[in-house]
Amino acid sequence: MSAPTATRPAPAPPNPVAAPGPWRSELRRGLAPWAGAAVLLTLAVTMGTKAAEWQGDWARTHGLLRTTTMLLLGPLVAAAGCRQGGREHRRGTGDLLRQAVRGRRERALTALAPLVACVVAAQLLGTAGVYLATWPYSLGGGLTWGHGLLHVADAVLVAGLTAVGFVVGRVVTWRGTALVLALGCYLLLGVSAYVDTPSGRLAPAQEPGVSEGIPALWLAPVIAVWVGGLALAALVGHLARRRLLALVPLLAAALAGTVLVQTGDDAWRTDPRAQRLVCDDGTPRICVTERHRNLLAPAGEALSGLRERLAGAPGLPERFAEERRGHRVRRDSGEVPLPSFTPLGRTVVRGEVADEAVFTWETVAGLISPDCPDPSGGALEDVVWTYLAPAHRRNLSDPADALKRAERYRGAEGVAETRAALNKLDRLRALPETERAAWLGAYLAAARRCDSAAQPTL
């Protein structure tokens, strides 16, 4: 009798590789990361090309960011959502997926959620990056909680437009729908933003007429309910079994829209920092608003030469002051207006005075040419202007060029007048300091009275 043969156990089957989750698949091979990169790139390029117009001014940075989000990112994410929503139609997998274990609603949310997460994250990341770029050049002031909450409302807008585009992409099978939707969003949002009517207050990125406004804390939640309610109504109406549920977010959006239309600019109040002045200790003092307090030192440096040339002159104005909204500098007020710091990119670029010679020349304009009925400052105006702002290439600062221009435009008579003015400029420079200071004081007093006949001789 033979021994029984031992049987070997069958080898265990290899462990099956776990299928990647739907989020991981969307983030690795789907549209979501590309859409997020497009949002970040659009924000970076748009803001970067206009950096000189916003870097340093918190309010201008805030306003331009919100406008860019609405007018450029809004149509972009709507087109991306539409592209994602029409994926099943383009691939011809609609009938096959309808037989899958997952229901229609679960499949839709699985495709939409990663896309929304990527574009919102990119928008918030880009917003934070822009604020970091403006921080080193801050003019002063700063943002409030109301400003920050408005960026959260903008994130709701980005998410809502993505969802609306997704619904449109699932409903409309035409391949050109995404492009038409983007163009339609741009026109709709652009018109609503720039039309001065009550309906224009429904624009998601509404801003007040003045850049120094402070938003109320309730404004951002109302805007979020307005734009989010409309988007949620579209999504619920498309995916829910009971489509009447879409009436709930739709009614909430209608209520929020009514609040926006009726309140209007009352949701913004004037920033008191745009009215309060901070001053240095020079003579005359230089005063800027608290919103621009970090410009006090650059302005003082730019006008240091002017203050030296005015030293000792009697009757000088009390201060060179930045003009404030609703406050007009009059010639008898003891103030001389400083050149306007805003809009950025002209007088001020990245927290510094762009051209100190031009800044000084424009300040002298307010000093010796106040708001007189007769704008002509008399025969000595160019002489005094050139003495006080010699670095600016205008008037008599370049004698050869002044004579050439006089000959070209006014002939021999103009050349004679220019030579006489140059001789007076030389005499003014040659005067002893105390005598020159007294002469300048008399000249400025006559200029403030708009009495050119009372100007002292030279």
SSE layout and pairings?
Layout: H1 22-29, H2 32-49, H3 58-85, H4 87-91, H5 94-97, H6 104-134, H7 145-171, H8 177-194, E1 213-215, H9 219-239, H10 247-263, E2 268-270, E3 277-279, E4 285-289, H11 296-302, H12 304-310, E5 319-321, E6 335-337, E7 348-349, E8 352-353, H13 356-368, H14 381-388, H15 399-430, H16 433-448
Parallel strand pairs: 4-5, 5-6
Antiparallel strand pairs: 1-2, 3-4, 7-8
Helix pairs in contact: 1-6, 2-3, 2-6, 3-6, 3-7, 3-8, 6-7, 7-9, 9-10, 13-14, 14-15
Describe this structure in words.
- The protein is mainly alpha-helical.
- It is 57% helix and 5% strand.
- It has helices at 22-29, 32-49, 58-85, 87-91, 94-97, 104-134, 145-171, 177-194, 219-239, 247-263, 296-302, 304-310, 356-368, 381-388, 399-430, 433-448, and strands spanning 213-215, 268-270, 277-279, 285-289, 319-321, 335-337, 348-349, 352-353.
- It has a four-stranded mixed beta sheet with strand order 3-4-5-6. A two-stranded antiparallel ribbon has the order 1-2.
- The chain starts with 21 loop residues before the first helix and ends in a 10-residue tail after the last helix.
- The chain crosses the membrane at residues 31-52, 64-82, 108-133, 145-169, 176-195, 215-237, 244-261.
- Keywords: Membrane, Transmembrane, Transmembrane helix.
- It comes from Streptomyces albidoflavus.
- This is ABC transporter permease.
